[in-house]
Write a structure and sequence with these properties.
The protein is an alpha/beta fold. It folds into 2 domains: 163 residues, D-Maltodextrin-Binding Protein, domain 2, CATH 3.40.190.170; 132 residues, D-Maltodextrin-Binding Protein, domain 2, CATH 3.40.190. It is 43% helix and 15% strand. It is built from 12 helices and 12 strands. Strands 5, 6, 7, 8, 9, 10 and 12 form a 7-stranded mixed beta sheet that branches. The longest helix has 35 residues.
Length: 335
């Protein structure tokens, strides 16, 4: 499913807030934009953040000074969206499922197997649906989605046994973000989902409170989860984007020209990250096996897709007309 795309990879601009209070600058001082995220500097989040820093400072000719705050220096991902709304954070990279508690329509991106392939996801995020989402999330929450960032897929890992069939998930205690769609999906797969904040996951995995979970392929490597869970399962069940958001307080501090430069830098940085992520996913999986010592399985997907379709139908029925309309638009974009 993952593959290198040679077509246009430019992702629609999405808002990822830079953390920290916006403070008035003297006439000749640059405007400081703190950009936060939860993973290490040399992670996939670091790729987009580092490129965004370079491009913002280039495009604004130094008028905006981006400062990178990795590793939850300025708060956790679970709390970041609210901080953006309050204006106590400038910008933050937030995984889609951690946006949903604050803006429930984002759960359409979380639905299992909602995207047929990577091209389908890019067509949505780069097209009218992505534009609508950016405009609506700003109108509803006051938070600016600067770029959706590069797409990836979540891989499962566990410390108990290999997953060869859907039945092998029965009873496995799998960490799941506090997201209703993801909880329902793991229940449909037969696992025992354990809702935990991201910040609690490493300790829970080390202590055996959970058997495993799922994350983007690079996160499993970057957070060294392979040291505690030897079984890696590839299903591409959840497509993942981790948008870059910015607070209205920060964006309002910019001139019209600076704002345009920041948005262009976000779009270009998102395209840069997408190209890298799509090229390296299989390389990381190989590294996890060869260097990380994990045992990899790729189960037949039909039973998982059937279970996922039931979850899609459940949430489309429960969430109302706006949610159903967005699901329909996403499905139509694949045609």
């Amino acid at each position: 499913m993952l593959r290198t795309l040679t077509g246009a990879l430019a992702l629609t601009a999405a808002v990822v807030p830079g953390l920290a209070l916006v403070t008035p600058a003297a006439a000749d001082d640059p405007i400081v934009m703190n950009v936060g995220w939860a993973t290490p500097l040399d992670s996939n989040y670091g790729i987009i953040a580092t490129e965004f820093e370079r491009l913002v400072e280039e495009y604004t000719e130094g008028a905006v000074d981006v400062r990178l705050r990795c590793c939850s220096q300025v708060g956790t991902e679970d709390d970041a969206f609210r901080a953006l709304q309050l204006g106590t954070v400038d910008a933050y990279i937030i995984t889609q499922n951690n946006v949903s508690p604050h803006w429930p329509l984002m759960d359409v991106f979380v639905l299992p197997y909602i995207f047929q392939d990577t091209e389908h996801l890019l067509a949505v995020s780069n097209g009218p649906v992505g534009e609508m989402i950016r405009a609506q999330i700003e109108a509803d929450t006051g938070v600016h989605l600067l770029t959706f960032g590069g797409p990836s897929y979540r891989d499962m890992f566990n410390s108990h046994h290999a997953v060869e069939t859907i039945e092998d998930l029965d009873g496995l205690k799998m960490r799941v973000p506090r997201n209703e769609v993801m909880l329902a999906t793991f229940e449909a797969f037969g696992a025992e989902p354990v809702p935990l904040a991201w910040s609690e996951t490493p300790t829970a995995l080390q202590t055996g409170t959970i058997d495993g979970g799922d994350n983007g392929t690079s996160v499993i490597r970057d957070m060294r989860f392979y040291e505690y869970a030897e079984h890696l399962t590839i299903l591409d069940h959840f497509t993942s984007v981790s948008p870059l958001f910015a607070s209205d307080r920060f964006m309002s501090s910019l001139s019209e020209e600076q704002r345009a430069a920041v948005l262009q830098a976000a779009a270009d940085a998102g395209a840069h990250q997408a190209e890298i992520i799509l090229n390296e996913a299989e390389e990381i999986r190989t590294w996890l096996v060869d260097e990380g010592g994990m045992a990899l399985t790729r189960p037949e997907r039909e039973p998982f897709i059937a279970a996922a379709q039931a979850v899609q139908q459940q949430f489309a029925a429960d969430r109302g007309e706006d949610f159903q309309a967005l699901v329909d638009q996403i499905q139509a974009a694949a045609e």
